[in-house]
Amino acid sequence: MLAVTAVIQVDDLHKSYGATRAVDGVSFQVERGEIFGILGPNGAGKTTSVECLQGLRHPDSGTLRILGLDPAHDVREVKRRIGSQLQESALPDRIKVWEALELFASAVPGASDWEGLLDDWGLTAKRNATYASLSGGQKQRLLVALSLVNSPEIVFLDEMTTGMDPLARRVAWGLIERIRDRGATVILVTHFMDEAERLCDRIAVVSSGKVVALGSPEELRREHGGATLVRFSAKIGDGGFLKKIKDVTAVRIDGESVEIEGTGAVAVSVAAALAAKGLAPVDFEVARASLEDVYLLLTGDTGDGSDESPVEEAP
Amino acid sequence: MRMVLRLAWLEGKLLLREPITLVFVLVLPVVMMIVMCGVFGNEVEVEDDGQVFFMGVGATDYYMGAYVAVVVAALGLINLPTHLATYRERGVLRRFEASSISRWSLLWAHTLIMIVLSGIGATLVVVTAKLIYDPTDPASPGLLILGFLLAAATFAAFGTLLGVLMPTARAAQGIGIMLWFVMFMLGGVGPPPEVLPDAMGAVGEATPLLHAVRLLQGTWLGTGWDWGRAGILVGILVASLGLTALVMRLRSAR
User: Fold this and answer.
1) ipTM field
2) How much is the pTM?
3) What's CA B117's distance to the chain center, in Å?
4) CB–CB of B132/B56 below 8 Å?
5) Domain check: are A201 and A253 in the same one?
6) Same-domain check for residues A233 and A156
7) Contact A104 B101 (CB under 8 A)
8) Rounded Cα distance, B67 and B191, in Å
9) How close is the nearest chain A Cα to the Cα of B81, in Å?
């Protein structure tokens, strides 16, 4: 079953804290060179799952393979080959930016050039600043830079853009793509939809400790997003010709305003049919489910109240 | 080992950037020593009924070994646990743990720093005493240093255990200060031990501080190396290390 290019394989992972099932049968695999998103509400089990992969927690049951290694047993080797930007972690207040980078680089033989990371992550001007004096976004960037000092094959970024201003987030997105372009696989834990949509090749949506959907952003929208809506204003009578179009599932007419529900490329078919009749409504618009709609649909209140975990708190 | 030294060097620099945190633990023992020695002087006092105080030596001489131990206890019970618990609470330990820097390297680095700071604090106490009160010189300086190192290592291990056990920095600081005060009052460095009621004396006898105090006093006053006390300190040292290792094992398996 294991594809040769899979760098991470998670099979039926379970992890409980007391009576709370934080992770309840999670399975997924990640291919080399992907940006893989793990999306879900707070307490869904995202962080616990990646912490098991990083060797920071021991799973109750399930099989984990990362770079062919078992993180519970080969922690040292795993840590040497992965990079981790952890949620809710920090550095000592008085440590200077360059000292932190030099320290972390010194822990790995053959560490990459940390001066370059300083530059990449826009911290050159803050080289001699203490950690406590950095802004939220600068702190995050430093923590990400630290996760890259060992030139990792897999990088875990856990809510890395939290605390960054919009501009800093855009810059960070560009850098994440650069990390990937250099050949690393990126695991992006986030609850920002735009971030997941823009960056991720594939996304696992996690809710209440389970993977509820898995696929590319486009696949998720197609499979879970429901109908496409087309709206325009035109005099089309009873609209009989529209009902005959292949992908159309419903037509609602209220005076001149028309709303059509359909699947697949329904919008193009409808537009073509209108054009053929010489109709060109200027307010023609198409509404497709956004990833956010899909996400809300998939992770909406499941009613079992079990999606609280002690390790993930609302920000 | 290289990583331990590197971390210790860095931690040392961090401390110097915020020296105020050290004032309490380094200056307080000096102030207390000045007060106690000033109050009791250095005459050997024998009451009419033959009762002796300060084990039959001058109070100033008595307090020398005692206050070297006080420095060690203040750093080990207050500074070290608070610092480690702060690191854990804020996620610094997690950050280190996720990298290739081991938790143990960090703990050893803090132990090293604590022993160095104890040396500085002890020197402050002794030099100040020498300048103001001119106590008798230590009888066996070599054994005194050995006893100091054993006491510092023991309190470093005990403080590390407290630091990894306490859930928050506030808890660590609260417990640390409380333990330190109890040991201070009953552990042979406050009122002369002869005036303590029996029950309090017994509690004092159970504190690690009293063992460190008596061991150091023996080397200072020339009554020799107290193997019994040294053995107890080694026992506390080993037990603390073992429990720390156990706690860390359980934590990492969560």
Assistant:
1) 0.85
2) 0.82
3) 10
4) no
5) no
6) no
7) yes
8) 13
9) 15
